[in-house]
């Protein structure tokens, strides 16, 4: 019996194996840099929309709104954060999936940013981003 492919299955993002994807470390570092600057108000969220899925975008948008309101309530101006990227740990739980933890050091504190990248349509896409 011949199986037909429906339009949704055909046009949905297609998983990509690790062998067809670039090294994830530069993307992990750059996304981390961007997310920290977005939360500080120094960068627009739209700049990373190509690299994140819809749920990550919505979650970051909520955090941006909260951060913006907090800055307005306290009268703090937007400042570009000063920080350094520390170590990057990368784990590959399955083919085409990478989970990374990037350490971010600033004068005030050290944070960890956890990112899950999935290979979709021959490129990495962030499906989870958590700033700890």
General description of the model:
- This is 3-hydroxyacyl-CoA dehydrogenase.
- It holds the Pfam family DUF6459.
- The chain has helices at 7-11, 25-40, 54-74, and strands at 83-94, 97-106, 110-120, 123-131.
- With 132 residues, it is α+β, with helices and mostly antiparallel strands.
- The chain has a single domain, classed as Nuclear Transport Factor 2, Chain: A (Roll).
- It is globular, with a radius of gyration of 17 Å.
- The model has no long low-confidence stretch (mean pLDDT 93).
Helix-strand blueprint:
Layout: H1 7-11, H2 25-40, H3 54-74, E1 83-94, E2 97-106, E3 110-120, E4 123-131
Helix pairs in contact: 2-3
Biased composition (Acidic residues): 1-11
Pfam family, one: DUF6459
Protein name: 3-hydroxyacyl-CoA dehydrogenase
Helix residue percentage? 25-40%
Radius of gyration: 17 Å
The CATH architecture would be Roll
Terminal residue distance = 51 Å
* Structural domain tally: 1
Which sheet architecture does the biggest sheet show?
4 strands, antiparallel
Tell me, what is the CATH class? Alpha Beta
Q: Which structural category fits the helices and strands?
A: alpha+beta
Spatial strand arrangement across the major sheet: 1-2-3-4
CATH topology: Nuclear Transport Factor 2, Chain: A
Please provide the count of β strands: 4
Q: Which runs of at least 5 residues are low in confidence (pLDDT < 50)?
A: none
Tell me the series of helices and strands, N- to C-terminal: HHHEEEE
SS summary, helix count: 3
Strand content: 25-35%
**Overall outline:** globular
The residue-averaged pLDDT reads 93
């Amino acid at each position: 019996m011949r199986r037909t492919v429906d339009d949704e299955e055909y046009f949905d993002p297609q998983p990509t194996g690790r062998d067809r994807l670039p090294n994830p470390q530069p993307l992990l570092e750059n996304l981390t840099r961007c997310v920290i600057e977005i939360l500080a108000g120094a960068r627009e969220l739209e700049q990373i929309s190509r690299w994140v899925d819809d749920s990550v975008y919505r979650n970051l948008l909520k955090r941006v709104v909260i951060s913006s309101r907090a800055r307005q309530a306290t009268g703090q101006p937007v400042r570009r954060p000063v920080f350094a990227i520390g170590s990057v740990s990368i784990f590959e739980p399955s083919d085409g999936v990478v989970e990374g933890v990037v350490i971010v050091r600033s004068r005030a504190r050290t944070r960890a940013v956890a990112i899950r990248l999935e290979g979709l349509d021959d490129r990495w896409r962030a499906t989870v981003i958590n700033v700890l």
